[in-house]
Amino acid sequence: MAILVNNHSGETKPWVDALAACLPEFELHSYPAIPSNADIEYAVVWHHPHGDLMNYPNLKAILILGAGMDHINKELELPDVPIVRLLDPAVGDEMSQYVLYWVMHFQRDYERYRQQANIKQWQRFKTPLAREYRVSVLGAGEIGRYVSERLAINGFVTQNWSRSKKVIDQVQSFYGDDGLKTMLASTDTLVNCLPLVDSTHHFLDAHKLSALPKGCNIINISRGAVIADNALLKLLDSGHIAAAALDTFTLEPLSDESPYWQYDNVFITPHMSGATYPSLASQVIADNIRRIENGEPPFPIYIRPLN
Ligand code: GLV
Question: Are the C-beta atoms of 279 and 18 separated by less than 8 Å?
Answer without folding.
Answer: yes
